[in-house]
Amino acid sequence: xxxxxxxxxxxxxxxxxxxxxxxxxxxxxxxxxxxxxxxxxxxxxxxxxxxxxxxxxxxxxxxxxxxxxxxxxxxxx
Length: 77
What we know:
The protein is an all-alpha fold. It has two helices and no strands.
């Protein structure tokens, strides 16, 4: 699997996880509309989740790229 495919797969997983996590955490009284406090919770939690995800994914892809580069250099020799 190349890094681009992995990136797309991870983005899909993040979208699914964020929906589940945020709805369970922020929507306390399901109904026809979302309250102001629920909207605020959704916004704050989304920001936190995406910031944390970006840190982790940047580190992951950096390591993955280093491993790929090492493997490529071994294949040349």
